[in-house]
Amino acid sequence: GAVVSQHPSRVICKSGTSVKIECRSLDFQATTMFWYRQFPKQSLMLMATSNEGSKATYEQGVEKDKFLINHASLTLSTLTVTSAHPEDSSFYICSAMYRAQETQYFGPGTRLLVL
Amino acid sequence: KQEVTQIPAALSVPEGENLVLNCSFTDSAIYNLQWFRQDPGKGLTSLLLIQSSQREQTSGRLNASLDKSSGRSTLYIAASQPGDSATYLCAVKSGGGADGLTFGKGTHLIIQP
């Protein structure tokens, strides 16, 4: 159990376009979902925390108008990178947590390349 | 602000050796600490989770210890195998509830056949 999926696994887009990444908890209801970003040879950095039905909480330095997060249901959260630029190229990983367990289950990640 | 450091950054050893990976964190007031494995271009696989009240956790050939007061954790891998080659990440959860994790940069491990 506790499987988290992400779609797409890899995406290439042109500079200036928007990209949406989906994170789904397949067999449990996630009260909270997290979005992380990992640049090459760097650690995973928390970008934002989202709770179902409420606005996401962004970490310092993360632009909320650029990285739009929607957590519309207990099994789905989406991250939209708006007006993507080459510096947004990174590995984006989501995790999902069920309140009672307080354990985060990670998705397989999405590799974004902005040309 | 919590900071997590992992030493060494990279390690290459012959198959069969026992090895130790180190993790340190600056704020000892943690909720739990977790070790993950990450294969190239892949997501994370949770290996061991140690609650702040615990001293160690074991799973197969893996043993993780936690010394919260000194801000340190170690991951011990016994009888290493080529399949253990991966990047090992240490992550700290500072509070209970819906807190995100603070990760180290990882130790890139290569086990030579």
What can you see in these coordinates?
The complex is a heterodimer of chains A (115) and B (113). Chain A is built from no helices and eleven strands. Chain A has 115 residues and is mainly beta. Chain A is globular, with a radius of gyration of 13 Å. In chain A, strand 7 (67-73) and strand 8 (76-81) form a beta hairpin. In chain A, strands 2, 4, 5, 6, 9, 10 and 11 form a seven-stranded mixed beta sheet that branches. In chain A, strands 1-3-8-7 form a four-stranded antiparallel beta sheet, with no helix packed on it. Chain A has strands at 4-7, 10-13, 19-25, 32-38, 45-51, 57-58, 67-73, 76-81, 90-97, 104-106, 110-114. Chain B has strands spanning 4-7, 10-14, 19-25, 32-38, 44-51, 56-59, 62-67, 72-77, 86-93, 101-103, 107-112. In chain B, the strands form two sheets. In chain B, strands 2, 4, 5, 9, 10 and 11 form a six-stranded mixed beta sheet that branches. Chain B is globular, with a radius of gyration of 13 Å. The mean pLDDT of chain B is 94. Classes of the chains: A mainly beta (115), B mainly beta (113). Chains A and B meet through strand 4, strand 5, strand 9 and strand 10 of A and strand 5 and strand 10 of B.
The biggest sheet of chain B, with number of strands, parallel, antiparallel or mixed sense and barrel status, is: 6 strands, mixed
Largest interface, per-chain counts?
A-B, 28 and 21 residues
User: What is the N-to-C order of secondary-structure elements of chain B (H for helix, E for strand)?
Assistant: EEEEEEEEEEE
Q: What would the principal axes of the Cα set say about the shape of chain B?
A: globular
Estimated radius of gyration of chain A: 13 Å
End-to-end separation of chain A:
37 Å
The helix-and-strand class of chain A reads mainly beta
Number of helices of chain A: 0
Amount of beta strand of chain B: over 45%
Which ranges of chain B are low-confidence, i.e. pLDDT below 50, for 5 or more consecutive residues?
none
The secondary-structure class of chain B comes to: mainly beta
Strand and helix order of chain A: EEEEEEEEEEE
Gross geometry of chain A: globular
Residue-averaged pLDDT of chain A: 91
* Sheet with most strands of chain A: 7 strands, mixed
Low-confidence stretches of chain A: none
Oligomer: heterodimer
What radius of gyration of chain B results from the CA coordinates?
13 Å
- Into which percent range does the helicity of residues of chain B fall? under 10%
What value does the average pLDDT of chain B take?
A: 94
